[in-house]
Amino acid sequence: MEISGLTSLTWRMEGAVGVFTLNKPERLNAIANRDIDELDRVVMLAGRDPGVRALVITGAGRGFCSGADVKEWHARSDRDEESWPAKMHRVITRLYWLPKPVIAAVNGVAVGGGCDLALTADMRFASTTARFGEVYAQRGICPDAGGSYLLPRLVGEARAAELIYTGRIVDAAEALRIGLVSEVVEPEALMDRAMEQARIFAAGPTIAIGEAKLNIRKGHSIGIEEALRNELRAGHRCAQTEDMAEGLKAAIDKRAPVFVGR
User: In which family does this protein belong, per the annotation (predicted)?
Assistant: First the structure.
C-alpha cells in the first residue's frame, strides 16, 4: 500500500507490516490540528487494506510525540475550525478498534496526546530514552485524548490517578515496572525489536487476531455471559476462513501453519 501527499508523517511497508512515523522532529512530533487529518487517513487506509496485517507507530528524531502543538493552540485564529480534541478522538477510536495488531515503538518523549496515542497500541516497546507522561494537569486541563480511559486499564486505577493528577513523567524503567510497556531496549535496537514482533503478528491468522482483539477491547465493559457470546460469534467467523482450515490441516500434518490473512 502506498500513500502519497503526506507532510507530517511518513508511511512505508515492510512485507505485511505497515510503519508510520510521526515526522516533525524539530517539534518533537507535536500534532497540529491539520496533522490529525493525515494521521486519520493513514490509520483508515491501513485498516482497510488486507495487505497490511500489522502496524508499527514510531516517531522521528528524539521524540515519539509531545502531544498537541500548544503553539498552534495559542496562535489559532480560525475558531470555527473543528477542535483538536474532537478530531483526535476519531483517530484514537479508529486506532483502538483497528482489527489488526498495533505496536508503538516509543523512541523518546511521549506526553499528553502523544502518550495517549501510544496507549492505544496493543503493545508498547520503549527505548531506554523513552519518557511517558499524562502532563495535562501541568497545563491546568485534564486528559483529552483517551488517557483517563486507557491508562487505568494498563497500570490500575490508583497508579493512573497519581500520574494523571500530578502530570508526573516516568522514565522507561518505571514504565516497564508498572506495566505501561512490554519491553525496554537500547535505542539502536528499538525498531528491530518492534518489527520482529510485528512480523510475528503479521504472519498469524489476521481475521482470528482481529476478532480476539475486538473481544479483548470489549471485555473491559461487559459481563462474562456477553463475553462468551462474543467468543462464539468470533469462532463462527473464524470457521469460515482459509487460515482456520490451514491451521487444522497443519496440526494434522504435524507442521507449522502458513497463514495468509484470509
Answer: Belongs to the enoyl-CoA hydratase/isomerase family.
